[in-house]
Amino acid sequence: MSDPKSPVAVKLKTSRFKVLGEGSSAFISVVTVLVLFLGWFTITSLGLIKPLFLPSPQAVFGQFYEYVTGAANDKPLWEHFAMSMFRVFAAFLLACVTAIPIGIAMGMNRVARGIFDPPIEFYRPLPPLAYLPLVIIWFGIGELPKVLLIFLSCFAPLALAARFGMKSATQEQMNALYSMGANYRQVVRHVILPAALPEILVGMRIAIGFGWTTLVAAEMVAASTGLGQMVLNASNFLRTDIVIMGIIVIGVVAYLFDLLMRFVEKKLVPWKGKM
């Protein structure tokens, strides 16, 4: 019999654990979603909860069909969806362009850290609704305050992820490159930035999640289209079926983008979790 503590046995156990863990996790997730929908269908079919508080899945799907086909007494779903996508991703891309370089500078330079750390740490814990009135006073009720509000919610997690990612490279890695004749710029490019990339990608996933959660608050500012506006408008008329439909659409889109970010993460940093 082979030694269970031998390197080969340990490697086989580890690979078996990874395969079983990944496969069973996806299966359990699918089963969980099906159980939740089954429970929702059962509760509403038995009339245990009034439709005002929890409409049936059939009613929610019916509203989704009406919005998709344009039969609803509102703008079609694609208009709400397109406007919300524009606001969220315009703010997210702007946050990536500004927050990542600032976070990298904070991780490398004490002057940059001293300048940017106080304002970021001050506003980071504040909920967007707290400074929404100030944004409206300063920038009006056009598209700018909506995008700006989402931008601010994305900026802080991205900057902090980039800052702390710059500390991921070990001193041994940097010394190894220095011993081969590399200069400081080459060390930053070939060691520090690649080591920070996993943290930056995680920060991007977190930031886009904050962006979607801020969407409803951003579209409170005199918006006529948008998924958040659609949900808010439906809540004023106690249309719970439309509210739940909008929440599901926002959640599904956010989840799909998170899956895309996971795929990008696997492609760009395949070494993550394997060292």
Give a quick set of tags describing it.
275 residues, MetI-like fold, 2 domains
Fold topology:
Layout: H1 7-45, H2 57-69, H3 77-108, H4 110-123, H5 128-139, H6 143-165, H7 171-179, H8 184-218, H9 227-236, H10 240-268
Helix pairs in contact: 2-10, 3-4, 3-6, 3-8, 3-9, 5-6, 6-8, 7-8, 8-9, 8-10, 9-10
CATH topology (level 3) name of the largest domain: MetI-like fold
The total domain count is 2
Mean pLDDT across residues: 83
Q: Could you say what the CATH architecture of the largest domain is?
A: Orthogonal Bundle
Report the total helices: 10
- Helical proportion? over 70%
Gross geometry: globular
Low-confidence stretches: 7-22
Distance between the terminal alpha carbons, to the nearest Å? 30 Å
Largest sheet: none
Query: H/E series, N to C?
Result: HHHHHHHHHH
Please, could you describe this protein's structure?
There is one protein chain. The protein has ten helices and no strands. The longest helix has 39 residues, at 7-45. Helix content is 79%, strand content 0%. By secondary structure, it is mostly helical. It folds into two domains: 1-49; 56-268, MetI-like (MetI-like fold, Orthogonal Bundle), CATH 1.10.3720.10.
